Amino acid sequence: MRHGKKNNHLGRTASHRAAMLSNMASSLILHKRVITTVAKAKALRKYVEPLLTKSKSDTTHSRRTVFSYLQNKESVKELFDGVSAKIANRPGGYTRILKTGTRLGDNAEMCIIELVDYNEDMLTTTGTAAAAKPKTRRRSSGKKTTDAQGSTDAPAATSGDAAATDSAETPAAE
């Protein structure tokens, strides 16, 4: 039985799995998103999130520790210079997995794993959704006042009706 063994072996030897996750983590850091299978994305998330947390403290020791996992100078430089500045305030959850359907050849579940702070479309959508949220609240029916409702609806209706009658009469007069 495999009680307490959380590691997904992904059908690979330990050295192959470590090399694959290292390469995928470097690609994720450099390109900010990677298209892969769901199983690999979940394994990659467990691999790369501790590295992202470690990048918040820019010390020689943390750089060497991260380099021992990534084995790529460019990705380590990008991680400590660019990515760590964006994720400095975030307490965790640096990656997002977006499922995209199945692959045509073998029907494997595919997804996009990306760094959360680099998807500009999601960031702008989240900002507008947060601003729109208070507008969706409804007032309970017991708290309506007839004076306030009647005074706001009446002038709008009369001005709209007057404009409609003026435009209707103008073509008839000509």
UniProtKB/TrEMBL annotation:
Protein name from the UniProt record: Large ribosomal subunit protein bL17
UniProt cross-references to Gene3D superfamilies, sorted A to Z: Ribosomal protein L17 (3.90.1030.10)
Any Pfam family the entry gives: Ribosomal_L17
Any single Gene Ontology cellular-component annotation: cytosolic large ribosomal subunit
Top-level taxon of origin: Bacteria
HAMAP family reported in the protein's UniProt record: Ribosomal_bL17
GO terms under biological process: translation
Keyword Ribosomal protein on entry: yes
tRNA processing recorded as keyword: no
Region (Disordered): 129-174
Annotated family: Belongs to the bacterial ribosomal protein bL17 family.
PANTHER family, A to Z: LARGE RIBOSOMAL SUBUNIT PROTEIN BL17M (PTHR14413:SF16), RIBOSOMAL PROTEIN L17 (PTHR14413)
MF terms (GO), sorted A to Z: structural constituent of ribosome
Subunit field text: Part of the 50S ribosomal subunit. Contacts protein L32.
InterPro entries, sorted: Ribosomal_bL17, Ribosomal_bL17_sf
Keywords in alphabetical order: Ribonucleoprotein, Ribosomal protein
Compositionally biased residues, Low complexity: 151-174
